[in-house]
Amino acid sequence: METTKPGGGMRRLSGTEISKQIKEELKEEVIRLKTQGVSPKLAVILVGDDPASAIYVNSKKRTCGELGIDSIEKKMPANTTQAELLAVVEELNSDPSVNGILCQVPLPEQCDEHEIICSIHPEKDVDCFHPYNLGLLTAGMPKFMPCTPFGVLQILKRSGCETSGQNVVVVGRSNIVGRPLSILMSLKAYNSTVTVCHSRSRNLPELCATADILVAAIGRAEFVTADFVKPGAIVIDVGMNRIEDASHPKGSRLVGDVDYAGIQDIAEAATPVPGGVGPMTIAMLMYNTINAARFQSGMDRFEL
Ligand code: NDP
Question: Which residue from 24, 97, 217, 266 has the highest number of Cβ atoms inside 10 Å of its Cβ?
Answer without folding.
Answer: 217
